[in-house]
Every structure is written in C-alpha cells, then in structure tokens.
Design a protein that fits this description.
The complex is a heterotrimer of chains A (about 290), B (about 325) and C (about 240). Chain A is mainly alpha-helical. Chain A has eleven helices and two strands; from the N terminus they run ααααββααααααα. Chain A is globular, with a radius of gyration of 19 Å. Chain B has one domain. Chain B contains 15 helices and two strands.
C-alpha cells in the first residue's frame, strides 16, 4: 500500500487534534480514579449524556454545543455531588468500595445508556455548528474546524485543571486527600467534602467533553462503552493521578487511532484503544509518568 | 459426603425435569423462555464463582459467552461439528482466554481486572465483527439436521435437555468449589488478599483457577446458543445486557451461596421475559439496571441475605 | 543443620530516594528469642516485609535454613516456615475465629507439620491451638467482632497454625493494658518449648527485656547494635536514639 506523505501528515495532524479532545475526555477519570480512587466507569456515560444535552440545545435553540456545555457544567457539577454522596454513604464509608462500588457504577453506566436509548433511540445524532463544515488548509494539510475548535477548548480546560490542581490550595488538598486524609482533618478540612467537590468537578468535565464529542462525531447511546477503553487506556498509560501523564497518554492514543483509521479502516479503532489498555495493564500498569 | 448427595439430588432433579417436559410440553415458547432462563442460571452461577466467592468483578461475561458461541460457529462451519463437541470446545476456549486474561491482570488490583474484562469484551467484539469466516456483522447461521440426536423429538427439546444438564453441572461445580479447600482459600482471598497470601494461600494460582472455571462455564453456556437460535450475530451475543445480567442476578439473589445466583436468575429472568413480551426490551433493560443499583446500595447481600437474617432472628427468639 | 535459621545480609530497600533499610544484617538462630527495637520509622516493619516477601529488597540476601528466598512469594515463604503477625491485625473478618485458623492449617502447615489435612483434621487442630491461646470459647464467633487483645492473640494463633520455625511478632502488644501485655508475653515465651524461634518487635521495653535472649536495634534504616540485651540498652548510641540528642 502506498503510504504517501500527505496521508501520513494528515493522519498525524488528525491524531494530535483528536488527542487534545481525548485529554479532555480522560481528565475527569484522572481526577476520580487517579486522585480519589473512585472507579467511576460510568464516566463515559456522562460524556454521552453531555452530548445529548448539547444536541437538544442545538435542536431547540440552535445553541453551539460548546457554549451549552459551559453553561450547563454547573448542572453536571450538581449531578456529580449527588452521585458522590450516594457512593460515599453506600460504599466508601463501609469500606466495601471494591466489588460493590464497581457494580454500582456499572449499573449507572447501563441505566444511562438504556435511558438514552428509550428517549432518543439508537440512531446517530449530530449537530450543526457554524464551523462544522469548514476546513482550513495549509498546503496539503487539512485542519478540519470541527476538530480544531474542540482541540483548543479541550487544551485550555486540561491545562487549566492542571494548574488548578498544582497551584491552588483546594487543588493541592485534593492531591493530599488520597494520601493522607487524617492530616487534612487535622488542618480543619473535611476530607469527604474535598473528595465530593473534586468528584463533582470530574463529572462536569464529562459534560463539557460530551459537547465536544458531538461536534467531532455523530453520537449514539452505546458510544460510552467504546470510550471506556479509551479513557482508561489513556489514564493507565499516562499514569494515574498525573494530568501531564493524561496528556501524553491521550497523544499516544489519538495518534495511534488516527493512523489505524486511516490505514486499516475505522472499524478497527476500538481494538486499538482496548488493545493498548490491555497491553498497558499487562506490562506497565503504573503508567509512563505515574506515581 | 454431603457434596456427593447434593450432586445426586441435582442431577436426579435435572433428569426428571427433562423426562417430564419433553413428554408433556409441546409449546415452543416454553422451551425458548426456559432455555433463556437456564442460560442465565449458568451465567450467574459462573460469574459468582469469581465474583461472590473470590471477590473479583467480571464485566465481560458476554465475551466468554461469545467465545463459546463463536467456537461452535467455527467448528460447525469447518466440519458440521455435533453439539457436544461444540460444548467442550467452547468451554475450553473460554477457559484458556480466562486464564490468559487473568494471568495478565490478576497480579494488579481487582479494579484493573474488572476494566480488563470490559476491554476484552470490546476487543473480541471488534475482531468478530471484522471476521468474515464467522459472518462478521451479518452473523452466521447454523442449521442442525432434522433428525435430532439421541432420540429426542426435535432439536429444540434436545438442546433444552442439554441446557438442563449443563445447568445442573454448573450448580454442582459451584457447590463443590464452595465447600472445598479451594473454596476456603478463595474466601480468604476475598476477605483479605494480603493476609491470605501471608497465611500460605497461593493467591495468584487460586484466582487463576477461579477465572478459568468461571470462564469455562460461561463458554459452555454460550456454546449451544447458535445451535438453539440457529443464528448468531455479534451485537446480541456481545450485548452488554448479558454482562449486566450476569452481575445483577447473583447480586440480587445473594452472592454468598450457591442458591443466590439461581434465585436471582429465575426471578430476574422471568421478570424480563414478562416485560419483554408486554412492554419492550429497552424498558426491560432499564429495570435490570435499576434493580442492580438499588440492590447494590440498599440490600448488598441480596435475597439470600434477607433469608439469612430472617433465619438468624428466628433462632434468637 | 549448621548455621543460623535466618541469615539476612546487606538488606537494602529504598522507596524512590528514601532509604528505609541500608545494608542491614540480621540473624536468628533456631529456637532463639530475639528482640528487634528502634524508633518509629526506623525500618523494622520494612525488614519484616522483606523477610516475609511482601516487599522485595533491592539489595542483599535473605537465607532461610541456608536457602535463598529471593523471588519467592510470601505464600512460599510461609510454607518454608516463616510466619508473621501483622501490626494492625488483619483477621478474615467474615469468617469465624476457628475458620481463621483453618486457612493456614490447610494451606501452609502441611509442608513441615505433616500431611495435608482434611477439613475435620484442620478443625480439630485449630481448636487445639485456640485452647493454647485461651480463645476456644470464641471459636464460633465472627472474628471481626473480637476485642483488641483477642485480635492480637488471633494474629499470633494464626501464625502458629502455619507450624512455623520462625515467628515474627510485629508490635503485638501495642496499646494493651499491663495484664494483657503479660498474657501475650506468656504466649510468646511458650513458643520456645515448641522449638519456634521468635523475633519480637516491640516498643514496650520491659517486655523486650524479659523476653529477649538477644536484642538488635534499628535506627533510620541501619542496625546500630546487636547483642546481649543489657549491654545493648546501655549502649550510648541506643540511648541517644530513644531519648534524643
């Protein structure tokens, strides 16, 4: 097969743009799982939920998804708070997180998917934005705006979160809470409250990421499941609890998937992410930049 | 000693069931519904060996189920393999995959194993969808010869009988494990893995045995599916609802005894059959999901848990 | 068998840049009663974890009965005869006290306690051991609900049930009352009759002094003294480590 230079470069560029988006998708898991040790496998379901909310807003008032997302992130934040409360009182406090917590989130994932099927059906939904059809060109390199805009906003969000967690007081409290909740308590900070807020933050990133998702590609309810592999592959590859690591993992996966789609066909993409996840778990579970 | 009686009773009951139904019941729907429920009994029982007994969650029951189903498809396409060959092969293939996946991930935390099982499901789904030999996304057909084997009236009854025997077998295996030395070791692993390891329990080895047996039984359950339905395609065989049901049924029935998965499977399976026929299959799935979440938060010990508490209260009074 | 039961030489363990153990030599003879003391964070538990295999030491060799333990997982080591109790008791909380002891009897004790045991044999032997520890009345109780001192006894009983040649008791007496300390001490002293060597890690000095035939001291990951208990305690470096500069 002829591997032409422009095909290669375009695959690379798409991969990088996709990677930015993937970072936004995964940063929420990086927070929930990496920093708080909450295995929220339902995270992708919330992303898809965010997509459908953006879809509805787009249908009803023609709103741009990303604007919708930023406006609605408080709602997702609230949802995250409620979810964490239930999780905390049912499982974490009793010390039974492992099996039952997993089953719980799996159930939430499933319920969300089915509820979306009941409401919207299984057809693909998409949005029309002013930039959906536009593509910038630089020589033979394409920069489709439907990838560029999410990329830019994703990057801003991810970097913003990285600085938030490493520089602000609350951010560092979150990093501390998993390591030494007692020390936090002695400082007069309620560890449960810290975790609660951080978890809520992770769910609101899911909502925002969902809005990007429907800009990039058409969405259907079962998409969440495909994204589970992606999200965990990125987080594990990059190293749990490290946002820069998440970005590295996202880059690897974005480029790998882009190349696979270009040269082997898009139906193989899920195998790439899950395959990389299995490989990462088997050989380097602490990730490339993990603690 | 008690274990041998148990096996005798279970198999006697199974044979009785087969004899009675095949001679008296002609209703096609009865057999289809019963087959489905029995299939879930096996899946729930198999899941519970790794889940309830050992403490490791498997999100990819559908993957092991499909390994069994598609092994049958491959063998049938290759040389028209009879059903028993499909059953054994399905079990072996699923067992090997379970062993392999376990070996790669069971040295890590339980969480990673769970995620890996989900990943396994999606990877295998992608492979099957892209594999033309087994029909890819369009699916594969299996037509059994008109003469049902072993003198059964028709193939439906033949496969139903096999299903009953396989269910009995799974229950006996689960019970044997539970009361054996292996079962005690698994209980220690579930309780506190580090303490178990430091008490001489070869935790990795036991976990691998658990994964392999669990996978084998799931593969066994899947192996007759294409024969019974005469058609199999990836979306339904890898359906998330299979994986969710495999978790919900033992959880709702009670994970700490062999009886829990059976109760959960019969209860939930029957509810689903009813809802599917009266309302719709999507609502049916929603109910399963909601029940799962409700039980895991409010009644984590399931129905058998209530039974145990009621028994304990009666003892005290 | 010539040579010591346990011979650890040059054991080193670091976590990133932090050295928990640095070139530690530690020996235990058959049936010996050794006290291992040192301030908090000096590496005592890390040493135990390296000996039992829960942690892998980065450097040094650990030999048990002349056999190199490198690469052996914990369950293999306990089958060879090294048992330990945990500082914070880790009972199998969902099991009865009796069943807690069945586990090591079924899984560890067969290699040098005789044959593989059946369920019933394990049960009988477990009751025996519980009797020695004064726990037989609680045999059918859930281990999760025991009192602190009973949990410590269960930890030691469980270690004993593995029929070890070396038992490492990790701060079994912490936080107990004076009477309770004496109970545990009596149990540990009784191990010698059974030919079991015991390493006692403790902060309670009167227990260490009564118990030990020999005392080793770890400070900041290094061994600074090892020998007769009286002499070791009079060692100025040891005094400094405990009382500060």
């Amino acid at each position: 097969m002829e591997i032409s230079a422009d095909l290669l470069v375009n695959a690379l560029i798409s991969g990088i743009l996709l990677a930015g988006f993937y970072a936004a998708v995964s940063v929420g898991i990086g927070i929930a799982f990496g920093m708080l040790d909450v295995v929220n496998i339902a995270h992708p379901a919330f992303i898809v939920l965010g997509s459908y909310v953006a879809y509805m807003a787009n249908q009803m008032v023609g709103a741009d998804p990303i604007v919708t997302a930023l406006v609605l992130s408080p709602a997702f934040f609230l949802l995250g708070l409620v979810l964490y409360r239930v999780y905390y009182y049912s499982f974490e406090r009793r010390g039974q997180e492992s099996l039952r917590g997993l089953a719980f989130f799996f159930g939430i994932l499933f319920i969300t998917e089915v509820a979306l099927i009941l409401t919207f059906g299984v057809d693909y939904r998409t949005v029309n934005t002013i930039y959906s059809e536009t593509t910038w060109r630089a020589g033979f390199v394409d920069f489709p705006l439907r990838l560029v805009v999410p990329f830019v906003v994703s990057l801003a969000m991810t970097l913003g979160l990285h600085f938030y967690f490493s520089r602000t007081f609350f951010g560092r409290a979150v990093l501390a809470v998993a390591q030494d909740p007692l020390a936090l308590q002695l400082m007069g900070i309620n560890p449960r409250r810290v975790k609660e807020l951080a978890f809520a933050l992770s769910i609101s990133t899911a909502g925002v990421a969902g809005a990007f998702l429907i800009v990039i590609q058409p969405v259907q309810p079962a998409l969440g499941r495909v994204y589970i592999g992606l999200v965990f592959a990125i987080t594990v590859l990059g190293g749990l609890g490290s946002i820069p690591g998440t970005m590295v993992g996202a880059a690897i996966l974005g480029i790998a998937e882009s190349f696979t789609a270009t040269f082997f066909g898009p139906s193989w993409s899920p195998a790439v992410s899950f395959g990389l996840l299995l490989a990462a778990l088997a050989f380097r579970p602490s990730g490339l930049l993990g603690r | 000693m008690k274990a041998r009686w148990f096996a005798l009773v279970v198999f006697a009951f199974a044979i009785l069931l087969i004899a009675i139904t095949t001679t008296t019941v002609k209703n096609e729907y009865f057999y289809t519904a019963s087959y489905t429920v029995l299939q879930f009994v096996i899946l729930a029982t198999a899941w519970n060996i790794l889940g309830g007994l050992t403490g490791y969650v498997n999100f990819g029951s559908a993957a092991f189920f499909s390994l069994g189903a598609y092994s049958s498809v491959v063998l049938y396409t290759l040389f028209k393999a009879p059903v028993p060959v499909g059953i054994v092969t399905g079990a072996v293939v699923a067992a090997l995959v379970g062993l392999g996946a376990g070996y790669l991930t069971l040295r890590l935390r339980g969480v990673f194993f769970a995620i890996a099982t989900l990943a396994l499901s999606e990877v295998l789904y992608t492979f099957v969808v892209n594999w033309d030999f087994v029909g890819g996304a369009r699916g594969a057909y299996i037509i059994l010869p008109n003469e049902a084997a072993f003198g059964f009236h028709n193939n439906t009854q033949y496969l139903f009988a096999l299903m009953v025997l396989m269910t009995a077998f799974s229950i006996v295996v689960a019970r044997f494990i539970e009361i054996s030395r292996l079962g005690r070791g698994l209980a220690a692993v579930r309780d506190d893995e580090i303490a178990a390891e430091c008490s001489g329990v070869p935790t990795l080895r036991l976990k691998l045995v658990s994964t392999t047996v669990s996978g084998a039984l799931m593969g066994m359950a899947g192996s007759t599916y294409p024969y019974f339905m005469q058609y199999v395609e990836p979306t339904s065989s890898f359906s998330l609802s299979i994986s969710v049901n495999s978790i919900a049924m033992p959880l709702i029935g009670g994970m700490h005894s062999w009886a829990g998965p059976i109760i959960g499977a019969i209860l939930l399976g029957t509810i689903q059959q009813l809802v599917q026929v009266t309302v719709s299959s999507a609502w049916n799935l929603l109910i399963v999901g909601v029940l799962l979440v409700l039980f895991v938060t409010l009644a984590p010990n399931g129905i058998m848990g209530w039974v145990d508490r009621w028994r304990a209260r009666r003892k005290r009074s | 068998m010539t040579g010591p039961l346990l011979a650890a030489t040059g054991v080193t363990k670091h976590f990133g840049g932090f050295y928990a153990l640095e070139q530690v030599d530690f020996e235990v003879g058959a049936g010996e009663r050794v006290g291992l003391i040192g301030p908090n964070g000096s590496g005592k538990s890390t040493l135990v974890n390296c000996i039992t295999g829960t942690l892998r030491n980065d450097d040094g060799a650990i030999l048990f009965e002349g056999r190199d333990l490198a690469g052996l997982r914990p369950h293999r080591r306990i089958r060879l005869g090294i048992a330990r109790s945990f500082q914070i008791p880790r009972p199998f909380a969902a099991m009865t006290v009796l069943d807690n002891l069945r586990i090591p009897l079924l899984y560890a004790a067969h290699t040098h306690g005789g044959l593989w045991r059946t369920e019933d044999q394990a049960g009988d032997e477990a009751m025996d051991i519980l009797g020695q520890f004064g726990l037989e009345a609680k045999a059918r109780e859930m281990s999760g609900g025991l009192t602190q001192v009973d949990l410590r006894k269960l930890e030691l009983a469980r270690a004993m049930a593995a029929r070890p040649k070396l038992l490492i008791s990790d701060e079994a007496m912490a936080g107990l009352s004076s009477n309770e300390i004496d109970e545990i001490l009596a149990i540990l002293l009784g191990m010698k009759e059974r030919g079991i060597a015991v390493v006692m890690i403790e902060h309670i000095m009167r227990a260490v002094m009564r118990f030990s035939e020999r005392v080793a001291v770890l400070v900041a990951g290094r061994k600074i003294a090892d020998g007769d208990p009286g002499e070791v305690m009079r060692n100025p470096e040891v005094e400094r480590a405990y009382l500060g500069e």
